[in-house]
Amino acid sequence: GPWHNYHSAGTVLTGSSGQQTSSEVLDKYVSLLTYAGPDGEKTWPKKYPFCGGVFQSPIDFHRDILQYDSNLSPLEFIGYNVPSTNQFTLTNNGHSVKMYLSPTMHIRNLPFEYTASQLHLHWGNRNKSEGSEHTVSGKHFAAELHIVHYNSEKYPDVTAAMDKADGLAVLAILLEIGPFNPSYEKIFRHFQNVKYKDQMVQVPGFNIQELLPDRPDEYYRYEGSLTTPPCYPSVLWTVFRHPVKISQEQLLALETAMYCTESDDPEPLEMVDNFRNVQEFHERLVFISFREGKLYKCFYAKKLHSDLCKSEILMWWSCCLNHYKNMGVSFSCGSLCSLFFHFCIVAWATV
């Protein structure tokens, strides 16, 4: 569509208010940020036009929009193992907890090389531990970690890159409840030192790759946006397929340790539910680096006669029949079977 031409490499994304941006300005946007209530995310587009525009994030990953892409190769993580003699700055910016990363960290195997800028988290609250931004088949995870990078081949810093269509690349890790995670604790144990807005603490360097799932080669890839105002559609998203586990206690620390307000505020506001709702995903595809679907596993594992496969085949077969019926093709089940069976299996199995 017309947006495709606009959303091209190097396009400057300027809202109708034409604000200039910087990382300080961005923190000013988000420190005033509320997700619920009268000034919640539904009102964002009034001040920030991109929030009501196209290519918005987060989204729900469901079968209808997923397409396997054999060209998606594993990312290369350069300089992610940061020595403990180096320090990261962890800060409470009033709407999340954010850790600035080392400029020696890069990711490759994307259209450009991207340099790390910061990581931050999104979460729910202690009564409802559903705090991820992206969802899978409508399911929320407990929390979500974002590692933000900017296109350092084309732009001098994250500020210059954040409003360009090809400016940012974000890695997203879905978090769920499981055993205690010592790697995440390297960040989480410092939350008590950043309870209030604008507080900062130094975190000794460690291998940031430890925060990723065991199979970082399996991921969802799509073009989307910042999930906070000004919602620039400038992000190439890589959302890892497999969640990472943290303990119930670690999640509780994330949900209860911090406030959106400064330490002297007489009415402290808890930092909870800082995730944006999923956005509409018009006529777009999410490309996946892994084969999807039970049928694929079923046929290629050559377990054609198992009960699982029988039920899957029957379910798929009725979909196939309906598909041709809707197209006005009047085949009997038998003739459709002989004509299209192998074609449909291959097509379905490679989705």
Automatic annotation (TrEMBL):
InterPro entries to which the protein is assigned, alphabetical: CA_dom, CA_dom_sf, Carbonic_anhydrase_a-class, Carbonic_anhydrase_a-class_CS
Keyword Protein biosynthesis carried by entry: no
GO biological process: chloride ion homeostasis
GO cellular component terms given for this protein: plasma membrane
Matches recorded under PROSITE patterns: ALPHA_CA_1, ALPHA_CA_2
Lineage top rank: taxon: Eukaryota
SMART domains, alphabetized: Carb_anhydrase
Cofactor: Zn(2+)
Record keywords: Glycoprotein, Lyase, Metal-binding, Zinc
Protein name stated in the entry: Carbonic anhydrase
